[in-house]
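Let's sit down with a protein and look at its sequence and fold side by side. Once you have written the record down, we can walk along the chain together.
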Amino acid sequence: MGLIDLLMNSGNGDLLKQVGKQAGTNEQGSRDLLSTLGSAMLGQVKGRVESGSHDSKGLEGLINNSKYADMLGNPSRHYNDRKMQESGDDLLGYITGSREGSREVASQVSEKTGVSTSIIKSLLPMLAPMIIGSLGKGLAGGGNQSSSSSGLMGMLDFDNDGSVIDDVAGLAMKYLL
């Protein structure tokens, strides 16, 4: 199962319903929005890991923290949890690198989906722990329990060509076009 599929299916579709509720979209609109947001955020993670602009071990520590992966089983427990919202804001900063990076993601996703930037911005902190959780489940599901850079890079290299740059470009093109 792909990382976006993990998001779509988290909580037996509970995350998808919550996204639809917050965005005011029907089921297909929610699927499109969650897929676009997930791709954009995973693209941010991949870009940051590939660029070496931060400590990959710190990111892997977050990914290996089971509390985020466990959230995928019952995301509704965490939507209105104040501590998880704060954690989501912190994770979002880690994923995008800055507030400006988060605003850029929100703007680009808004352009692609037609959902307002303010709604996208409200969804990003909620989705950040889920993105980290899907990466954790992806590592665990792939049988790779390693916390080495090659483990994370290997998981982010969707086409297994040894480079995540083309995968980042592919994700970026997917959500920008």
